[in-house]
Amino acid sequence: MKFTAAQIAGILDGEVVGNPKTEVYKLSKIEEGTHGSLTFLANPKYVNFVYTTEASVIIVNNSFEPEQVVKSTLIKVDDAYQSFSKLLEYYNQVKLMKSGIEQPSVISENVTYGKDLYLGSFSYIGKNVVIGDNVKIYPNSFVGDNVTIGDNTILFAGVKIYSETLVGANCMLHSGCIVGSDGFGFAPHDDGTYSKIPQIGNVIIEDYVNIGSCTTIDRATLGSTIIRKGVKLDNQIQIAHNVEIGENTVIAAQTGIAGSTKIGHSCMIGGQVGFAGHLVIGNNVRIQAQSGIGKNLVDGEIVQGTPAFNYGDFSKSYVHFRNLPKIVAEIEELKKTINKLKQD
Fold first, then answer.
1. What is the pLDDT along the chain (344 residues), one digit of tens a residue?
2. What pTM did the predictor assign?
3. Most CB within 10 Å of its CB: which of 117, 241, 260, 302?
């Protein structure tokens, strides 16, 4: 797919300096630019590459004035970084503009779907499913019975959505994620065996949620596991039954959240954090990577460690921990001195 400098400038409300008919068909870093590529200059550290890059078109700030001859066509904009980000979003939308139902695929009875559906080959849609407009379901995906999927949502290849799940609009579920599998519920018996507790609840995912590859969200035992509007989940996260995550909370990879824990809105949670079950985490909480959370946290807390405690106290304690061998040696020396004074 090719674009001219003039077309790009039109998208970005920019000004072309050079040949408006210059064509590009790929993106690149400015230091790795080649013929036919589009790049940008936002960091002054890279300004020298403007004069050496082979990129065909460079997006620059309006304030940029070249001090040497520039071979590339320039597009001047208010903010080169934001404009390039906008262009990436536009490019991604164009790339994902698919529609139609590929074969082989299965659409069961009583399914309704809106306009511009894309259903990739080897996908299965269960009974009584409701799918909104402009939904993209990539190959090898599974959508169980009685699922609802809102407008403009994308399921990438290999996504599995179990029955009764509700997925909102403008969501993105990446390859391999599984939504609605059984919660981890087993009742122990006196003889050491276990019997499975039926998991008859569901999962509710509200609008504008992103779910990373291989993340798993368990259905509730009763009621719902709920992912609120605007939540962003990284890859390989485990969310257990009856968990609730508040609006606009972001969680990094390999975090595990045990059953019935409630996390507030606008929290930031680092990678490999572990939560015990039945906790209440406040709003705007910050949890550093690899922390272990075993108690409730109030609004605005910043914690680290296992078990996690106040981030400032942790940082001070860590300094002492690193100096522990030296501190022990000094204490031993003091003990020797005291013993010697006692003997004298």
1. 789 999 999 999 999 999 999 999 999 999 999 999 999 999 989 999 999 999 999 999 999 999 999 999 999 999 999 999 988 888 877 777 888 999 999 999 999 999 999 999 999 999 999 999 999 999 999 999 999 999 999 999 999 999 999 999 999 999 999 999 999 999 999 999 999 999 999 999 999 999 999 999 999 999 999 999 999 999 999 999 999 999 999 999 999 999 999 999 999 999 999 999 999 999 999 999 999 999 999 999 999 988 777 878 888 877 777 788 888 888 888 888 888 888 87
2. 0.80
3. 241
Quickly list H helices, 53-160.
80-95
Residue 74's contacts (CB-CB under 8 Å, 6 or more residues apart) are: 16, 17, 18, 57, 58, 59, 60, 64, 66
Domain limits, the chain: 3-95, 100-313, 314-343
Distance CA 176, CA 140 (A): 10
Catalytic residue among 35, 189, 241, 278: 241
The two structure tokens encoding residue 40: 């940008």
Residue 162 makes CB contacts below 8 A (sequence gap 6+) with 144, 178, 179, 180, 181, 203, 219
Structure tokens at 237: 């996260």
Residue 343 CA, distance from chain mean position: 67
What string of DSSP letters covers 233-289?
A: E-SS-EE-TT-EE-TT-EE-TT-EE-TT-EE-TT-EE-TT-EE-TT-EE-TT-EE-T
Q: Which helix (H) or strand (E) is 218 found in, with range?
A: strand 216-218
Q: Is 241 a catalytic residue?
A: yes
Q: Which fold has domain 3-95?
A: 3.40.1390
